[in-house]
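Notebook B, p. 112. Complex prediction, attempt 2.
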Amino acid sequence: NAGVTQTPKFQVLKTGQSMTLQCAQDMNHEYMSWYRQDPGMGLRLIHYSVGAGITDQGEVPNGYNVSRSTTEDFPLRLLSAAPSQTSVYFCASKEGQNSNQPQHFGDGTRLSIL
Amino acid sequence: EDQVTQSPEALRLQEGESSSLNCSYTVSGLRGLFWYRQDPGKGPEFLFTLYSAGEEKEKERLKATLTKKESFLHITAPKPEDSATYLCAVQVPSGGYQKVTFGTGTKLQVIP
């Protein structure tokens, strides 16, 4: 059971470059989300999706885009990378938006912007 | 504003030395409090969910408890493999969805 799979595991970008972080889950979960984790700060929600075709902004959405064309996949796009976006990015999923069940996390993408 | 504070930031224990990690919260309408374990280079791994004051959950050497203002993660006779960062998170209703707020974690090191 793969759970939540994120690719790539590591990435280095130059300021201004764009890229897509991939996230896929095989648990048929409706709800998926993207977080960033920075030293000394808790996980912060970037964007989330409650189902295919439906996305919304979280706490820190600026500079990021998402789409949800299938239940399984929820890619995160950096439009024009900035050093402030250097972070570890985690994708998570759970059964439904209003479920009290915990989220399942991937192992993250470590992103450095030079 | 919802707040979650974990203490201590870091904890160093000798193998077998029991202790507790604290997660205090200030929220309206708690729907659930989650404990996760995070190993270096990995994503958070779910441990427990607590829903109401007085509830307790146990798993091996870990026991989580919940009051109306805080949660404790008790570690009994820890082993080196318990070394990790422990995160807590609270879930509350917010504008039609369930908002989850994470604490900054407690980094636990267990020395053989």
